[in-house]
Write a structure and sequence with these properties.
The protein is built from no helices and eight strands. The strands form two sheets. The chain has a four-stranded antiparallel beta sheet with strand order 1-2-3-4, with no helix packed on it. The N and C termini lie far apart (29 Å). 24% of the residues are buried. By secondary structure, it is an all-beta fold. It has one domain. The radius of gyration is 12 Å and the shape is globular.
Length: 94
Amino acid sequence: MSGLSWSPDGTRITFAPQGPADSGVYTMRADGSGLRQLTQEADGAPIWSADGTVIAFIRGNDQVWTVPASGGAASLAYDLAGSFKLGSWAWFAG
């Protein structure tokens, strides 16, 4: 698994499995119910926005993407062109 992040209100989590049969960014309720797949790619390190409406994640080695937490199309936020090393990161508004 790549990343596990609690929603700001503590009711949901987001995560990205890293197995050969599993890929994408998922959300589910804190009690384990309501599993929802948000992306289909080999994405990782998902985190919630401060207001809980958006999830940001890493695609490939150097792109930051966002997807609505309620589902919908993902969009490219930043292309870091090889300058990103996967690790802990945080969402900052601005």
